[in-house]
Design brief:
Blueprint: H1 2-12, E1 22-23, E2 29-30, H2 34-37, H3 56-69, H4 71-84, E3 87-92, H5 98-114, H6 125-140, E4 142-149, E5 156-161, E6 167-172, E7 175-181, E8 186-188, E9 194-198, H7 216-232, E10 241-245, H8 256-275, E11 289-293, H9 299-320, H10 336-371, E12 378-383, H11 390-409, H12 415-424
Antiparallel strand pairs: 1-2, 3-12, 4-5, 4-9, 6-7, 7-8, 10-11
Helix pairs in contact: 3-4, 4-6, 7-9, 11-12
Amino acid sequence: MLSSIKSKLQNRWPLLVGRLATKSKSGRTERPSYPARLKSFTIDAGGNHPYQFQTQRARLELYRFLRDNVPILSSVVWTWVRLCAARYEYKLEREHSGAVDRQVAEVLRELDSRIYHNGVMKRGGFKELLLQFFESLFTDGAICGELQLMPSRSRIDRFMFADMKTIEVTPEKSENHVYQVTDDSKTRLNNQSLFYYGLGALPGTVIGKSLLAAVPFVARVEQTLVSDMHRTMRNSGYQRIHVKVTPPAKRGDETEDDYVSRANSYFDDTVTMMKDFGPDKNPVTWDDVKIEYIGPSARVSTSNAWYLTHKAMIEDICAGTHLAPFMLGYAYGTTHNWAQFKFELVQRQVETVQNAACALLDWIANVELALAGLDARVRYSFRNRLPMGLTDRAAAEKIQLENIVTKLNNNLITRDQALDELERI
């Protein structure tokens, strides 16, 4: 089993990795072959399967290929992006007069109209910027973008995302420097106008980890399983059939050579018939030909066995991408309460990822307000609450309020402590 998986992965793995452009000695741009980009995929006797990449670019191209070509991983990224890119709002950090509030609203409205443009789609603004932000974050594991000002330096012109395949982060002394690397240049980017964020970055490094980093091997096995199922289930719904041909009886006036020749000819005719046996055709033979189905005694158990095997693969992929199967369209009969509990867990994860997006929006908006000469700062937040479970949340809030009032009326807490508890609800 292990050797079979190994051979399939070694044969198909190059299809998962895009070509990397390199410079030859003659100065021409060439596309190197698979071994020049990615070290061999090996599985040792202990079952280990390390992925070893020569470059970060090769890793990112693999993740993008998986996102665009494996349905479940495409659904994973799509779902995470849409969960995180929820409705947003801003609040002023401190109270201002009504005139200042209106000025802030007008400045930010104009900023939203030009901050990020999506070409011929005639769409833009912070909504499109957030979609691109989370798409890159979950696929590549990091985002990098530059804030560009107008020539007059009086307003922000736009925010430009960089292709993470061209970004290198190099620690130098006490800080990290970001470089954009192309075929013929390596440019250091200005940290003051740059926004960089790595998903799940470890201490001491800002390089993040893609949401898909934990699943390439399992995804490859799952896709191989689906391919094998497709190939073995083609015979009119059977996994495999076994045709048994009983040799004809030898005639009394027939020599041994003539008998063998006649038997072989009969066998060859039967094989030819079975090769042309399509799903909509039925074989017609004498009763000396027997067609049997190879597999478990019950055909239902065959489909169940395949279903359970595939289900285990799907759940492994879902675990690696931090989503429950039911959120990707796989209905395993979960109850409403269990599904709601899982969704609440996902929402808490969403809020932690959204903190990075809020930091980006805060930075852009406050720079624009400063350039406009307004002594005001804003803070963005996302509205993730859905109507699901609204009644239960209202009942829980009512109990909490009644509990605070009861403690206050019985002098168990002070008024200030009661107000603090109200703010935490």
